[in-house]
Design goal:
heterotrimer; A alpha/beta (about 325); B mainly alpha (about 325); C mainly alpha (about 350); B: about 325 residues; mainly alpha; MetI-like fold; C: about 350 residues; two-stranded antiparallel sheet; 13 helices; 2 strands
């Protein structure tokens, strides 16, 4: 296993304070390793986007980080906790070390500035010593890498198509060559053909620039194909994580199983599609015990009283797999 | 370009509508105030001047409405707005020509300054929610609820007087002759300070409030989160991402409310006996000088239309989306 | 004369979601808004004075006496005029005219703006083009000079006439906002669905659209009342409307024409001016209440500072989420900014 680059430990996010606080992310521990693509999947409201915004401390009020740490390992330096950074340290950390591609590129670009202005200001903010020619050259090169010709530099966002805007956003995310790129549903708003093109390009870019990706989506089939490891979130907690192939072949949590069944298989024999009955839990009134038990076909008494802990399951003694479930054989060792 | 042409067409249409309204007001409202005035000045007026008043106020009962309308337009295009009774026998156009620069200087500059100051304070108030600026909002609300003219009266009582720096009335020192020399300009500026401050105080809060609310709305846009995620400096995010976008609706709001604001600020001239259009209007109302009143209305409307067009050009420059190629 | 202080243009009601909550609870929530509550109480006070003012006034406002230009005293609370008239009584009696014109003009203008704005937004096409051009024209033409001309051309314009003139000329702002909102409502799914199932246009407008416009209509009404009150007082102040009917503007007219300022008779114009300002503030507060009710984000947030577990104070702000506690304490390391790392790499 490669060295870690971003370690999320016992991470908690609340919306609101005191009695009115709603717990959106609970006790999440997740490690992103150097050079890997880690997929994070779940239905809407599972807390996956909240986690991404929380890790980067970009949650708007009333979001607060109520506990945990995010340890960042810079190349050739001592690790530090992102949660302990002052605002100016955080500003220096952002984009240079961890950049983000947001859901819906339509609104991610400032409508009143040219693409070039928005690319160059981030370079200027982080590397003020660079000459303006060098900045322009860097921006142009990056746009070329994502397949945007240099003459589109002077275009305004409204003059670009949705796919082009998202490519610009990806180019912008990579322009400082960060170690980590967080992608929050980066292709959801695009058509399938465009989705594939952009993902293929991303794979290529990752090989060239060697960054790690935390890829967030509700589309599990996309992750199975594209990521090295997958973590599944439900009700603000990680319920399972495993290598993509393992998860696809042999998911342990009933929720992962349900998610997989709700997408058509990419390869292999056809199978029947089935949605998961019920709806995602309301954060304001979480079920007791395992949050999934009201929708779980295999739930039994223990599920409604005790919250299962994430751990290596007894049955598969594989350190790369973790699941949080009370079903026989899946209870963590120890 | 298309946007601008559309706007110009609209303003031409509005100008037509305003002139037409002006044409119909004396014709549709009962009472005939002008005839008595003409009778009063009988003998002192040339037949030409009387004829022009007949056309403006529709006194010639034999002519059809349509031919009256055509004659009316012809006269407007010649710039003949009739004779003023207050300043008999000066033509209305001449009076307005003298007072318009004063109004443009006072109302134009202060309205613009008020917009700029209010917008800047609004940016800060919206960006730093819960700061001391939020506490200022109720105060400015109260100030903006005071009629301009009353605030002017108060300012005169408290600040102006024979031994004060601020003169209580007029546009310049009585002995001076209007010209472009330092003494005159200094005196004009000194006389305009108090009216300007009055207008500023009562009009600034509207801009603070609307800009604050736009900033709050814009702050939740995705591109603001991206700007923060990019690690840009606070100033850059606030100014060139948030304020720059929040400004757009405020500029179009500025254009739309010019009519309201200018109407109100004209009253300040009355209180300060400032030699502008608003004071003309007051004098005209006092002596039932209808030709002057109508002239004032036309000139104000045309000025507001031009100011609107300028605001539209500013909007065009600020928002790339309206600036489509071709 | 302030610009319409409301920013209702920036406000987009959250549509059917808001309607789902019981109307009664919503109304209570509105009254619970401190700004709206204060405004409503003050407005209620002025309405009461408007009704009972003429009965409780200690003197006939026009009656002369021998107390000429006297300052406030036990007998004359707000002092007297050059004719020895009691200013306190003038203010009390004058409230009725102010409120009457303000409310009537507000009702007329609001009715027109709903009629024109909603039909323009709902009908679309040529009707929309025509009606919105009409409202834009009325919006751009300076209303106050127009009102002055019209009112001064009408011989002996009383309160009713003044209210009519103001109402007929100041509907355009509301119509514009209502048109925009109707347009966006018309495209919502539930309205489309109602059209598809063949509901009558009338029914769609009254049942599906109007209830969702309540806040905007209310805010437009309050805004027009502010404008109408100001215009009316202005007309009286510059001596256009009949000076035989008392209102606050008439008081100011006499104060101005009798050189109250030069005589140092501050009591002559201060009470009426303050009354205008307080009424105007109350109406603005109601409007802020409506704005905040419709889009809660605009509320000035009370809790921007948060105490953390270890006693630090952090600020809630966009872009920098506060961290309340770090349970996994790591030795504080000054982050190696990458430039430095790159330089180190380059040096090696």
């Amino acid at each position: 296993m490669k060295a870690p680059v971003l370690e999320i430990k016992n991470f908690n996010v609340d919306y609101g304070l005191g009695d009115q606080a709603v717990q959106a992310v609970r006790d999440v521990t997740l490690t992103l390793h150097r050079g890997e693509v880690l997929g994070l999947a779940g239905e809407s409201g599972s807390g996956k986007s909240t986690l991404a915004y929380g890790v980067t401390r970009l949650l708007p009020p009333p979001g607060v980080i109520s506990g945990g740490s995010v340890i960042y390992h810079p190349p050739g330096g001592d690790p530090y906790d992102v949660m302990a950074l002052s605002n100016s340290e955080l500003r220096a950390f952002r984009w240079a070390e961890t950049s983000i591609v947001f859901q819906g590129a339509m609104n991610s670009l400032n409508p009143v500035h040219k693409v070039s202005t928005q690319m160059l200001d981030v370079i200027r903010a982080h590397e003020p010593q660079l000459s303006s020619e060098a900045r322009v050259a860097r921006a142009k090169e990056m746009l070329k890498l994502v397949g945007i010709s240099a003459d589109r530099m002077d275009a305004y966002p409204h003059q670009l198509s949705g796919g082009m805007r998202q490519r610009v956003m990806i180019g912008m995310a990579l322009v400082l060559e960060p170690q980590v790129v967080i992608m929050d549903e980066p292709t959801t708003a695009l058509d399938v053909v465009m989705q594939r093109q952009i993902l293929a390009q991303l794979v290529e870019l990752r090989e060239r620039l060697d960054f790690s990706v935390l890829f967030i989506t509700h589309d599990l089939s996309l992750l199975v194909e594209f990521s090295d490891r997958i973590a599944i979130m439900y009700g603000g907690r990680i319920v399972e994580q495993a290598k993509s192939a393992d998860l696809y072949k042999d998911s342990l949590h009933p929720y992962s199983e349900g998610l997989l069944k709700s997408f058509p298989a990419l390869r292999g024999p056809r199978r029947e599609l089935a949605g998961i009955p019920g709806s995602p839990p309301d954060l304001r009134g979480m079920p007791t015990g395992c949050a999934f038990h009201p929708r779980c076909p295999h739930a039994f008494d223990r599920c409604s009283t005790e919250i299962p802990v994430l751990g290596v399951p007894e049955a598969r003694n594989d350190p790369n797999r973790e699941v949080a479930c009370w079903l026989p054989g899946r209870v963590p060792v120890g | 370009m298309k946007f601008l042409l559309q706007r110009i067409a609209f303003y031409l249409f509005t100008a037509w509508a305003a002139i037409t309204i002006n044409f119909f007001i004396p014709r549709f409202i009962p009472g005939d105030p002008v005839t008595s005035l003409i009778n009063k000045f009988q003998g002192q007026m040339s037949t030409e001047a009387i004829q022009s008043l007949y056309v403006l106020f529709g006194l010639d009962k034999n002519a059809s409405m349509w031919s009256q309308y055509i004659d009316y337009w012809g006269q407007i295009f010649r710039g003949d707005l009739g004779l003023s009774f207050t300043f008999f026998p000066t033509p209305v156009s001449e009076i307005l020509g003298q007072s318009l620069p004063w109004t443009i200087a006072l109302v134009g500059i202060t309205t613009f300054a008020s917009f700029m100051i209010g917008t800047s304070l609004g940016v800060l108030a919206g960006w730093r929610r819960g700061s001391w600026l939020d506490g200022l909002l109720p105060v400015t609300t109260f100030l903006s609820s005071i009629p301009y003219f009353w605030l002017g009266l108060l300012a005169i009582t408290l600040l102006a007087g024979s031994d004060s720096f601020f003169p209580s009335s007029g546009g310049y020192e009585p002995g001076l002759v209007p010209s472009w020399n330092g003494e005159f300009i200094g005196s004009a500026v000194q006389h305009s300070l108090l009216p300007a401050i009055t207008i500023l105080i009562s009009s600034v809060s509207g801009w603070i409030l609307s800009m604050r609310n736009m900033m709050v709305t814009v702050a939740s846009e995705d591109y603001i989160t991206v700007a923060h995620a990019k690690g840009l400096s606070e100033r850059r995010v606030m100014v060139s991402y948030a304020a720059r976008n929040a400004l757009l609706p405020n500029v179009s709001g500025f254009a739309l409310s010019l009519g309201f604001i200018v109407g109100g600020t004209l009253l300040v001239e009355i209180v300060f006996s400032y030699p502008g259009i608003g004071y003309n209007l007051f004098q005209a109302v006092g002596s039932k000088d209808y030709p002057l009143m109508q002239g004032v209305f036309l000139v104000i409307t045309m000025s507001v239309l031009i100011a609107n067009l300028i605001a539209d050009v500013a909007y065009l420059l600020l928002d790339p989306r309206t600036r489509k190629e071709g | 004369m302030s610009a319409p202080a409301t920013t209702i243009t920036a406000v987009t009601p959250e549509g059917p979601a808001g309607v789902a909550t019981p109307a009664k609870r919503q109304r209570l929530r509105f009254v619970a808004n401190p700004k709206a509550a204060t405004g409503l109480v003050v407005l209620g006070f002025f309405c009461l004075i408007a009704i009972i003012g003429p009965w409780i006034a200690p003197f006939d406002p026009s009656a002369r006496s021998n107390d000429l230009i006297q300052g406030p005293s036990g007998k004359h609370w707000f002092g007297t005029t050059h004719l020895g008239q009691d200013i306190f009584s003038q203010v009390l009696v004058g409230t009725r005219g102010v409120m009457f014109v303000g409310l009537l003009a507000g009702i007329i203008a609001t009715a027109l703006s709903v009629l024109i704005g909603v039909s323009s937004g709902f009908l679309g096409g040529m009707a929309d083009e025509g009606l919105s051009a009409l409202s834009n024209v009325f919006l751009v033409i300076p209303a106050l000079p127009l009102i002055i001309i019209v009112a001064s051309t009408i011989p002996g314009a009383g309160d009713l006439m003044v209210a009519l003139v103001i109402g007929l000329t100041s509907w355009a702002w509301g119509a514009r906002v209502l048109r925009a909102q109707t347009l966006s409502l018309r495209r919502r799914d539930y309205v489309e669905a109602a059209r598809a199932t063949g509901e009558s246009t009338w029914r769609i407008i009254t049942v599906e659209i109007l209830p969702n416009l309540t806040a905007i209509i209310a805010s437009g009404f309050v805004g027009t009342v502010i404008f109408a009150v100001m215009s009316e007082i202005t007309l009286a102040f510059i001596g256009i409307s009949t000076i035989s009917e008392w209102n606050w503007g008439t008081i100011l007219f006499w104060a101005q024409s009798q050189q109250a300022l030069a005589q140092g008779a501050w009591w002559w114009f201060v009470p009426a001016g303050l009354a205008i300002a307080i009424l105007g503030t109350a109406l603005s507060l109601i409007n802020f209440g409506i704005d905040e009710f419709v889009s809660p984000r605009l509320r000035s947030s009370g809790h921007t500072r948060v105490k953390t577990a270890d006693g630090r104070t952090v600020k809630m702000r966009v872009g920098f989420t506060p961290v309340l506690s770090q349970n996994d304490k790591l030795d504080p390391v000054t982050p190696v900014v990458r430039k430095a790392a790159d330089e180190a790499k380059g040096a090696a």
